[in-house]
Specification:
This protein is mostly helical and 96 residues long. Helix content is 64%, strand content 0%. Helix 1 runs antiparallel to helix 2, helix 1 (14-25) runs parallel beside helix 4 and helix 3 (41-56) packs across helix 4. The chain is elongated and about 55 Å long.
Length: 96
């Protein structure tokens, strides 16, 4: 396992990331997805922040890939809700 500067092993590894992303894609809230996979919600938000920073600096890191995967999931969920709203006779109230 990779270690942080302080010597602590990272919790950012592919299996955990995949499980978190799978949970979020099934509409599990971020906090629950994080805690169910052994990390604090603040750790998840740190990973997202790190992905944004790396992306802004055009660094193609694992954090950047994680953020891109997360944003794709969020985009797909938003599009699905918009389609539900458009196809519902009740409009946005049908999607609530």
């Amino acid at each position: 396992m990779e270690k942080h500067k302080g010597g602590r092993p990272t919790k950012f590894y592919p299996t955990r990331i995949e499980q978190i992303l799978d949970a979020i894609s099934c509409h599990v809230p971020y906090k629950i997805a994080a805690e169910a996979n052994g990390i604090a919600e603040r750790t998840l938000f740190y990973w997202i922040k790190r992905g944004r920073q790396d992306m802004e600096q055009e660094i193609n890191s694992e954090f950047t890939k994680f953020l891109q995967s997360l944003r794709k999931i969020e985009s797909e969920k938003i599009m699905a809700h918009i389609e539900l709203i458009r196809s519902s006779a009740r409009g946005h109230k049908g999607s609530q």
